[in-house]
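In response to reviewer comment 3 from the previous cycle, which asked for concrete evidence that the modeling workflow produces usable outputs, we include below a single protein chain processed end to end. The sequence was submitted unchanged, and the resulting structure tokens are shown without manual editing.
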Amino acid sequence: MLAYRLAASPCVPQPARREKYPVASRSIGLGAAIFALLGAPCAIGTLVSPIALGLGAGALFGAVAASWAFVDKTLLQYLFFTIAMLGTVANLYTIWYAKRLRRRGGGGA
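The workflow returned the following structure tokens.
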């Protein structure tokens, strides 16, 4: 099959040319309007949500998981578990300290 757009052969009939540059329409399509109305709030919600960071990190780690086989070593696992435990202890301390402040009456709001 010869491509008529490339003028591969002079024997191939060329379609009639309407205009060199067609004029773009100034109206907005229904699909574009629906996409704008539904997509924009979702994009804004994702950008300002703290969940976006977790979803982005999860997607990144999922995409590069095959090339990160060295992370499956025992020593690195212990290191990651230790970092996770320190984060857990820091969160529990923050909750305990906030409760203590509320009981004393110095808890802001």
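The chain is about 60% helix and 0% strand. We consider this sufficient to address the reviewer's concern, and the full set will be provided in the supplementary archive.
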